[in-house]
Structures are given as C-alpha cells and as structure tokens.
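Study the following:
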Amino acid sequence: MNVRRRLISATAVTAATALGLGALSACSSDSAATGNTDKFDVVASFYPMAFLAEQIGGDHANVTSLTEPGQEPHDLEISTRQRAQLEEADAALYLKGLQPAVDEAVSQTGIKTKIDAAALTTLEDHGNTEHDHAGEEGHAEEEGHSEEEEHARDPHIWLDPVKYAEVAQGVGKAFEKADPDHAADYKKNTAALVERLNGLNGKFETGLKNKKTKVFFTNHAAFGYLAERYGLTQEAISGLDPESEPSAARVRELQQEAKADGVTTVFYETLVSDKTAKTLARDAKLKTDVLDPLEGITDKSRGDDYFQVMEANLKALQAALGAK
C-alpha cells in the first residue's frame, strides 16, 4: 500500500522580527576575531542566511556565518567567541527552529536587529509521520507523538525559490530600516535577487512539468516545500532530523513503494552519512544520486553558490523522475 504524507498548511508564523536603528557597531569579517569595520556587520546562522545577507547587503555589508563550510548546521554549538561576535554585530539573520543553539544565543544578546527568517514566510508541517510512528505500540504513545509532530514545523524554506524570495524581501526591508543610509541599494539588490529566484522557480516549473513519476526518495525530509511547490511527493528514509535511523518497517515500506511508483533513485546529501540511503538502494536495486539540501557549500557541492547547486538539483530530479 502506498503511503502519502499529508501536507498540512500551517498558519503564518507570527513571531515579530525585531528591527532597530542605531549606530553601526561592527564585528570582524574574520570569523576568528572581532574588531571594527566601516560596514553593516551581519552575523548569519548558516549558508542560506549568509547568502541572502551577501546578495542583499552587497558592498555595504560585512557578513560572517556561524556555521563553517562542511559543518552540519543542526549540530552547531555556539562558542564564546561567536557570542561576542553576535554582541558586536549590527544584525543577526537566522532561521528559528533549525539551530537551537543559535536561537538561544540570539535571544540572549543585546543586538538591536534580530531577523528571524521563519517569521517572514509561512512554515508548514512536512514531518515524516509514517516513519515516526512505525513500530509504535499503544494508542496513548501515538497520540503523544502526534501532538509533538503537530508543532514541529519544517524549517527548510530556502529549497522553495518562492518562499526564499519572500524571505529575501523581508530581509531587504530589515536592512533598509537598520541601515537607512544605504536603503536604496538594499532595495535594488533585493529586487535583483527576487527576480533571479523567480527565474529559478520558472526553470523548476518547466523542467518538472512532464515526468514519468512524481515520487522521489531522500535521506531526510528536507525537500517538503520543493515537493509541494512542483507537485512532487517526497518520501524520506528519516524524518526532519538527518541523523535519525529508519525502522525496519519503514525500509520495507519504501522498497514496496519503489516498485509500485516506478522510483528509480535514492537521493543522499553531502553533509551527512550516505550509508542508509545506499543500503536501501542496494536492497531495492535502485540508483543513488545527490540531492543537495544546500545547508552549506563545500568542495563536494555541485556548484559554487545557491543558484548553481539548485540547478544541479533540478537536473538530478529530472533524471530520477524521467522528466522530459
């Protein structure tokens, strides 16, 4: 029997984005030290946020990422040095719910401009409930787990170009307010970035329009927004946590579904182990390929920036889904 994850619409996140004016304090562009710069200093939580800050800030922004290239962002712990960077920065750009250590550190700092990307678009529940509940016994246990899942919103909004554009627009407005001397340039840069994201959305719409199957398997449930946007069905080996292990029942279920839906490929990613994905592929006689959740750029990435890697993801999906 084929199992489908329900895409549950959530109400818009109402957390307020704290914006503020004030003299530019400054932190160093060198992540190993702090100091003064004459630019608008932004500390970003991880790559997708840093990319937005760099594209929108342009020549006026000095952007530092708390997550190093190749580091799994979910596991980030904040050092004393990084807390000092946050205190000295003009703005913090982060995605609440993805990195608990960052959420805590930002909330404890006195930084005036705190920009929560999750508050700039609508988050939804793409939790892999059929995996999470597999093998559970007892109605009470299932009810408790379901209630917990209900409040777990999927943070991977940057993998949907439309939602990422919504976030970009909010970040642009925050930069304009926090650094009004360069507001015109921030507005111009934001418009250019949104136009590129709209173009990327068009490429995905066209490229995935005619396909043999709409189902794809991934290592963890990072691609729920992308799947929903383009009429696809993501089936994840693990849930939203990339390190969680699937149950034997979940693996058997995926093997059966691969046959029923004509799935050809199990996708894995660059920053976490590919062992489980490759084991499933071998047992089900499927191919493997990379579908990059873009949580960081490394020398293993199929591109040097967000747009290049997203276009590589499109090509991988087209091949896996038999798109023409």
